[in-house]
Structures are given as structure tokens and as C-alpha cells.
Amino acid sequence: MSHFLDIHSLNKQALLALLDQAQQYRSNKGKGEAILAGKTVAMIFEKPSNRTRVSFEVGIRHLGGEVISLQGAEVGLGKREPVKDVARVLSGYVDAVVIRTFSHDIIQEFARYATVPVINGLTDQSHPCQVLADLLTIQRYFPDFSQLKICYLGDENNVSRSLSEAAQILGSQMALSGPSHALGGYGDRVNDPIAAIKDAHVVVTDTWVSMGDDEKDLSPYYQYQVNQELMAHARPDAIILHCLPAYRGKEITDEMIESDQSKVFEEAENRVYAQQAVLARYLT
Questions:
Q1: CATH code at 153?
Q2: CA angle centred on 143, ends 141 and 144, rounded to 5°
Q3: What pLDDT digit, counting tens, does each position of 217-251 carry?
Q4: Are strands 239-242 and 202-205 parallel, antiparallel or unpaired?
Q5: 133 with 102, same domain?
Q6: What is the tally of structural domains in the chain?
Q7: Which residues are identified as catalytic?
Q8: pLDDT surpasses 90 at 211
Q9: Which pTM value belongs to this model?
Q10: Following CA atoms 148, 155, 131, 266 in sequence, which dihedral angle do they give, to the nearest 10 degrees?
Q11: For residue 274, which of 123, 140, 110, 114 has the smallest C-alpha distance?
């Protein structure tokens, strides 16, 4: 029994195998063999969720499984009840647990005590399911990851960290450009967004304001906005990704998210198939 907490827990072979499985689910619109028949997955959401909750619930049901969704206040991880107690109790009830929470320490502690697979639906440090969907989207347009340049623009966060881990595993070039480089890790930190985006195959951005960070000064970020002027320095066939929700007019313009280069809504749909591949690997 193993857990899916971070991209860096996978080697290249395992990561590509997950993508191959996800491609198969995508070709069938997520309707595969009922491999989760008789299994129940619990999902704990300490952060608001749209895509994560819906895509997991749809994916689980299409594979024949049952799902129970719990809000953070109902569980009170580490507050109402110790994390290790919740982990052991739920392990006696269900076949896997998906957690969307704040601190990465919480999901790591939960996994230490759980006796069923634990899947990271998002923490402040890591967003591996999102990045699997990103890779699935990228692979459709640029199959050879070793020949790929990915440019991440804006605020370094859980998405940029997980994407950098994937790029390192797959041998892709990674450039990150933004006002701060607090997270470290793989990739070239390039202060000049024009230099960072030059000849990029994939341009990725995310919201500048994380949940609970509403007072941030955004003035240093606008030079990293994904707009037509900046995209002119990427490859002509470059694609744009954003995990959503998007704040149009801030990290990306309305024009670019609605452009032919934008694969944002395909990326969102791919969450279903990427997560089905994770469920198939860790629950069967």
C-alpha cells in the first residue's frame, strides 16, 4: 500500500505509466471498466473546491466506486480531533482518502497513520493531481517531454513546485519568472519574463492571490501577466495552461484565455482522467 502525496515520489517510468493510463481514460471519456466496484473513497476538503471535488466524484463513479465528501469543519483535522485518529478511523471505513488541505504536514501525518491509500488533492506545498492533468494536456501537443521548454510566470506556489518536479523527472527545460523565488527546487529562475518565455512550448500561470492572502500587493506582478505582447516571445505554437480559477485582467488577460493557444478548459477536463489513472494505480 502506498500514497500519492507528491510528484517527486514517482520515477520517470511510473509517471509515464500514469499518463498512458490517463490517455486511455480520456479516449473513453472516463468511462472504463468498473475497477472500483465495491470500493468507497472519502474526500476531505478543508479548502473550497470546484474542479477537484467534481472531477474526483465523476471519475470515481465512472469507475464504479462510491464517494463520501466531507467538509473541513465536519472533520476538524488536528483541531476537533487529532490527525492520526481521523486517519485510523477512516481507514476502517473506506478504501482510500483524498485530502485537500493547507499544511503539507497534515497530509503527511495522515498518511503515516492511514492503512489505506491517501491521495493529495492539494496542499500549500504540492498539487500533484493538477500537474498530472497539465502533463496530459501538454502531451497531446508536444509528445516528447525531453524536447520541451515550460515557462511558469507569476507567483511560485504548489503548482509551480509540482510542475518543476515533473519537469525534472521527464527531462524538460523549466523556466520560472516572477517577483519572488521562495520555493527553490528545479528550474531556472529568470527575473526578466521576456527572457523566461523565449521559445517556450508551454506557458503556465496561476492566480497571484492564494486563499487567505487577499491583502497582497499585486503591483510587482503585472509585468508577468500572460498577455498578447508577452506571448509573442514564445513559440508560435505555444500553448497556455492555468489551473483555474483565473482572475482575468490580472495573471492572464481575457483575450489570451479565450485564444486558440489556451488549453485551459481541456486541462480542466483532463483532471477527471488523470485522477482516474491515480485511482487505478493506488486502489487496484
A1: 3.40.50.1370
A2: 130
A3: 899 999 999 999 999 999 999 999 999 999 999 99
A4: parallel
A5: no
A6: 2
A7: 100, 127, 130, 206, 243, 271
A8: no
A9: 0.96
A10: -80
A11: 140
